[in-house]
């Protein structure tokens, strides 16, 4: 897909993810076990944190050619959640929005070649952003069906 097509697909996936996340009743965002052993709030923080993380991973790759070793990230999710555990829901929504805007801003600086499916960055964009939104959208949808 072209850069324009990828960014459009990300925008559509992001919109669906947000729509699903915002469909959760206010008092249910912090219900443990709603997304595996996480709350919906924690899932939102997780998405924001990985959007931030991926900007750094792609910057490093583009400047050095060094691919990220995801095997070293076994506790990164817990670390992200610990760092942001004191955020209330309005702060989480703000953080999620800011992280996504920052990600899109960075992606818009990339060249067309960085979006090709067979490139390292193109694969990251597909698997760690677009599919990530979709997976968590489905998790939230499954939780919503139990309410």
Give a verbal description of the structure.
The longest helix has 26 residues, at 120-145. The protein is built from 5 helices and no strands. The termini are far apart. The mean pLDDT is 93. The protein is mostly helical and 147 residues long. α2 (40-64) packs parallel to α4 (89-109). 68% of the residues lie in helices and 0% in strands. It has one domain (3-21, 40-145). It has helices at 3-22, 40-64, 76-83, 89-109, 120-145.
* Largest sheet entry: none
Alpha carbon gyration radius: 15 Å
Number of separate helices: 5
Q: State the share of residues found in helices, binned by percent.
A: 55-70%
Helix and strand content put the structural class at mainly alpha
Percent of residues in β-strands: under 5%
Question: How many domains, in number, for the residues?
Answer: 1
Shape: globular
Number of strands: 0
How far apart lie the N and C ends?
A: 38 Å
Name the average pLDDT. Answer: 93
**Poorly predicted sequence stretches spanning 5 or more consecutive residues:** none
Oligomer classification: single chain
Order of helices and strands: HHHHH
List key phrases describing it.
mainly alpha, 5 helices, 0% strand
Summed up:
The chain has five helices and no strands.
Secondary structure blueprint with pairings:
Blueprint: H1 3-22, H2 40-64, H3 76-83, H4 89-109, H5 120-145
């Amino acid at each position: 897909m072209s850069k324009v097509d990828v960014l459009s697909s990300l925008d559509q996936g992001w919109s669906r993810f947000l729509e699903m996340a915002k469909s959760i009743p206010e008092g249910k965002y912090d219900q443990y076990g709603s997304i595996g052993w996480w709350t919906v709030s924690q899932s939102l923080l997780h998405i924001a944190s990985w959007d931030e993380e991926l900007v750094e991973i792609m910057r490093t790759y583009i400047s050095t050619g060094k691919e990220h070793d995801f095997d070293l990230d076994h506790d990164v999710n817990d670390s992200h959640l610990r760092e942001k555990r004191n955020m209330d829901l309005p702060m989480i929504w703000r953080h999620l929005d800011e992280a996504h805007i920052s990600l899109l801003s960075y992606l818009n600086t990339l060249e067309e070649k960085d979006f090709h499916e067979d490139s390292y960055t193109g694969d990251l964009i597909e698997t760690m952003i677009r599919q990530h939104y979709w997976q968590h959208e489905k998790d939230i949808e499954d939780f919503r069906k139990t309410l």
